[in-house]
Design brief:
Blueprint: E1 3-4, H1 6-14, E2 18-25, E3 31-37, E4 43-46, E5 55-56, H2 59-70, E6 77-80, H3 92-97
Parallel strand pairs: 1-4, 2-6
Antiparallel strand pairs: 2-3, 3-4, 3-5
């Protein structure tokens, strides 16, 4: 596993050396960051001080972290959802919004 620290990711983003940032959902339902660099092949996992992949329990906390820690001019961010079972939308509002006219 290619590993990169929080400080390195911040520096790489400031220097526009991150081609893309992927937010990947784990089998346990948590989220982690994997970056692709412009100058090094492969994907690089954001790790904590123990060199383990850093994980977030919710997307809103992860989004807040990205804005607070990296801010400014961010690279394209992709979201990859794995192992998620979505229920079929049965909410009337969702069905109404999907109709021509959008529920107006």
């Amino acid at each position: 596993m290619n590993a990169v620290s929080e400080g390195e990711v911040a520096d790489f983003i400031r220097n526009k050396a991150v081609k893309r940032m992927n937010i990947i959902q784990t089998d346990g339902g948590k989220y982690r960051i994997v970056v692709t660099l412009t100058w090094k092949p492969g994907d690089w996992n954001l790790v904590n001080a123990r060199r383990q992949p850093r994980k977030w329990a919710s997307l809103d906390r992860l989004a807040r972290h990205i804005v607070n820690e990296y801010g400014g001019d961010l690279p394209p961010i992709n979201l990859v959802l794995l192992g998620v079972k979505w229920e079929k939308a049965t909410d009337e509002a969702d069905e109404r919004d999907s109709q021509p006219g959008g529920g107006e």
